[in-house]
Amino acid sequence: MELLEVRGITKKYAKFTLRDISFSLPAGYIMGYVGRNGAGKTTTLSAITRLIRPDSGTVTIDGLRFEDDPIAYRDSIGYIGDSSYFPRRMTLRDIRTVLKDFYPSFDAAAFDALAEKWELPDKAQIQTYSRGMKVKLMFAAALCRETKILILDEATTGLDPRVRREILKLLQDYIADGKHSVLFSTHIMEDLQDIADYIFFIERGEKVFCEPKDDILESYLLVKGGPEELTPELERLLIGVEKHDYGFQALYPTDSALALPPALSAEKPTIDQIVVHILEGRE
Amino acid sequence: MRILKFAHLDYLKTSRMNYMLLLFPILAAVMLLASADGSALFAVGYCLFAGIVLAAFPYNLTSESERGFLQMLPARPGEAVLGHFLYGLCMVLASFAVGMLAVVICHLVQPALTILRVDGTDVSGLYLALIGVALLFTGLQSLLMTALRLENIHLVQIIRIVPAFVFFFGFNKGLDMTEAMPDFGIGPGLAALGACLGIYGLLALISRAITIRRGE
Is the ipTM of this complex over 0.90? Predict the structure, then answer.
């Protein structure tokens, strides 16, 4: 069952257009939403969460559109931003009160337990929290109520590896029952390598690909060789050729009709390497 | 119900600034007791001035990054802005209440100070009219904050301060210019307050329509 369905989302700004973005995400899966700065990641996520209104296109979460029931729609989303979105002068106690006021499913005991586990001070203003504490508070706010989907916008950027690992584990626990999904925009491809089931790659407001991660990893090989091995015929075939004094490195599509010369070394690329070479190839 | 929740949220956001609500009546009381011909109307107007300034704090203290939290709260479009207006109404009423408390205390300390009558004239309705005018300035200020969607902090400060000062100096000038205070009892006062409340409600609905149009 598709939990999130995005169809033909378009949003025009003076200097940027998000063009006809479509994808779907089944329940129980994590999708990594990747692209470089300004590619349209935050605009897409903002259109899904309705922080902005798209010019055209539809988004449904578990079959529900924002226009059908804005309250139930927003209630079904747990959103974690790239920076703390809590009013900076509020305290953890204030946040708890607001969550209790607005979300009928908010579990105050679970929230307190997470706050205690993560050692979040309850009387200090949010503006005095460290980046890691702010992210943990956003997670606590999103995880302590009933949601259907978590939407993360660069939430792990700037966190130390230990906290990042802890958060990735939380995301895996969240989807474990097969009823929830996570849409995760990040620059840190290593995170996606570990937990994403699908990868959506966006560049200049347009979809480059959206496929299961394993299929993407199977689709390419990272090839390396000396300068003499890079024939014009091979260069036309390769993606994102990086030339150095001592040779080259590029992506090789595994469905290619041309066999790889045996002198070249080939290995499985990481998501990061695939993204970097595809971007170079497009330039 | 959610409008009430948004007003409560505004209160939580600004609660660390609201000590100012108590500072102004203390200053007003000191001025009243120190002056031989102090006016209770002036003291209450001074507190309402503070109410107008404080009513704008939720706008002033909201940064762009907070949209991810505030705009994601489950609510119908436009309910948050109605919450701001409700909070503004509460701040004006609270500032009036503490202002009245201050003049009553001053009257107990200095019985020569009259509150509801000035030189034998009934001015009780003027207090209600003052609340109404303060609400008009608060509503106008909130409408501007909503419509202009200010990100320029200097402009926000101007819109937060100017209506309050226009109110304060305006009514002060009015008090100075009036040689003989006309009779203004509870009846006309209630009528003026009712009319101003109506306009305040209208300004709230216009602000709501603006946010709905923007899809917030």
Answer: no
pTM of the model: 0.84
- Which token pair is A182? 């996570």
Q: How does DSSP classify residue A238? A: S
- What is the full per-residue pLDDT of chain A (283 aa) written as tens digits? 789 999 999 999 988 999 999 999 999 999 999 988 888 999 999 999 998 889 999 999 999 999 999 999 999 999 998 777 888 888 999 999 999 999 999 999 999 999 998 889 988 998 899 888 888 899 999 999 999 999 999 888 777 888 888 888 889 999 999 999 999 998 778 888 888 999 999 999 999 989 999 999 999 999 998 888 888 888 888 898 888 888 889 999 888 777 788 888 889 998 888 988 988 887 7
**Do A183 and A132 have their domain in common?**
yes
Q: Is the same domain home to A125 and A229?
A: no
Q: Are B186 and B116 in contact (CB under 8 A)?
A: no
- What residue numbers bound the domain in which A225 lies? 217-282
Interface test with B, best of A65, A86, A149 (most B CBs within 10 A): A86
CA nearest to A81 within chain B: B68
Contacts of B71 in chain A (CB under 8 A): 50-51
Half-sphere exposure of B9 (CA within 13 A, CB side): 31
Are A102 and B77 in contact (CB < 8 Å)?
Answer: no
